[in-house]
Amino acid sequence: MQNTFHRIMIIGGSGSGKTSLAREIAKITKLPSVHIDWFYYDPGWQLRKHDLVQKDVIQAANEPEWIMEGNHTSTMKYRASLADMIIFLDIATPIRLVRTLRRSLQYRGRNRPDMADGCKERFDLRFFRHVLRYRSQGRVRTLAFLQSLPAAKLKYHLKSRREVQAFIQSLTNSHQS
């Protein structure tokens, strides 16, 4: 694994482990972790104006070092153009659904660290439907997006917990040498 990356983009369906992987990579690389959801919501889950989101995400993406996790397709192409590495967490729907439900229960009524202030976790049936539909909709778009990127762009397509753990171990090893 190359050892000279400064911008890492992590994408995948809800509950795929984007935030957890960003946290692990940040520990290993000392790169700052940026959660895309921070930019998209105001307190009470109110969507921010599109132009403000674009401005803030572009400003963050222009920083020299980061790990950015989150999908939000409106800024995905720009972030990918700057990323040294793109990681797609393509985890099975039942696993993502269980993780999402567990997270919802764990943080119920409280803010998650990866969400904007004032966005308290809640059970939302529409969101769980979104989790269920990702495989047939969002995943298809993500795969097409990854295919459209230059072949030279460093990409990882991780499909299981085992592959994620192997990636983390490889990254750890490359930073110890």
Kindly describe this structure.
By secondary structure, this protein is of the alpha/beta class. The protein has a single domain (7-171), classed as Rossmann fold (3-Layer(aba) Sandwich), CATH 3.40.50. The chain is 50% helix and 15% strand. It has eight helices and seven strands. It has helices at residues 18-29, 37-40, 50-61, 73-82, 93-106, 125-133, 138-148, 161-176, and strands at residues 7-12, 33-35, 41-42, 46-47, 66-69, 85-89, 154-158. The strands form two sheets. The protein has a five-stranded parallel beta sheet with strand order 2-5-1-6-7, sandwiched between helices. Strands 3-4 form a two-stranded antiparallel ribbon. Helix 1 (18-29) packs parallel to helix 8 and helix 3 packs parallel to helix 4. The longest helix has 16 residues, at 161-176. The chain is globular, with a radius of gyration of 16 Å. The termini are close together. This is AAA domain protein. Pfam families: PRK. It comes from Brucella grignonensis. Residues 67-119 form the Phosphoribulokinase/uridine kinase domain.
